[in-house]
Amino acid sequence: MTEKTVDYFYTLVSPWTYLGHAPFVAIARRHGVRIVHKPCDLGAVFAVSGGLPLGKRPIQRQNYRWYELQRWRDFRGVPLNLKPKFFPADATLPGRMTVAAQSQGLDADTLAGAFLKAVWAEERDIADADTARAIATECGLDGAALLEAAKGEAAVAGFDANTEEAKRREVFGAPFYVYRDEPFWGQDRLDLLERAMSGTVEPYRLPA
How far apart are CA 169 and CA 94, in angstroms? Predict the structure, then answer.
């Protein structure tokens, strides 16, 4: 039987990825679906998909974001600093560490969740190498080895390949899940994603 997988595109500084990460992992495990982590450069994806960095969005969209963050923080029951000390931060290094972890068969689910929590609940700078190493170590991984692997050609190429794949597969935000070649954008689509994983509906497709 073919293994069921879901491709998971994100950046490790996305509050929406943070809010949805734990329930997404739980849903995938409940349905026996393996998560394929694809951290990527969301700024480069925005450049080809019409997205804008937060500071360049219209004020009405920026203001509405505050309401939604508070609503979903309370709905999910997780801590979230509305204005974290280290946001925005360059997520390239922890992204590459996550790429390396997945390629080695390590627990990328837990590692990605720890990086997200570090930004949005713990006031930690995941762009800092010492901090990133410490977070990986706290996850029970060899933080020093992962940090070194993140500097290597394979992790660099893997992260860049994720970014190019995101462009090719029409990703335009984070988190973005692709299951059975059907895209789901946003942690607020998790109910629909679980419905698909349950096998009770056929994949939806673009009209011919």
Answer: 23
Tokens of 164: 């190019």
Q: Is the pTM of this model over 0.85?
A: yes
**Residue 94 Cα distances to 21, 76, 107, 145, 156, angstroms:** 16, 24, 14, 13, 11
Q: In the numeric block, which tokens belong to residue 158?
A: 């893997």
pLDDT in tens, 143-190: 999 999 999 999 999 999 999 999 999 999 999 999 999 999 999 999
The whole-angstrom separation of Cα 84 and Cα 185 is: 24
User: Where do we find the tokens 């056929």?
Assistant: 202
* 72 contacts 19 by C-beta, under 8 angstroms: yes
Domains defined along the chain, listed by start: 5-197 (3.40.30.10)
Query: Are the C-beta atoms of residues 190 and 23 closer than 8 Å to each other?
Result: yes
Q: Report helix angle 190-197 to 15-30, nearest 10.
A: 20
Structure tokens at 57: 């969005």
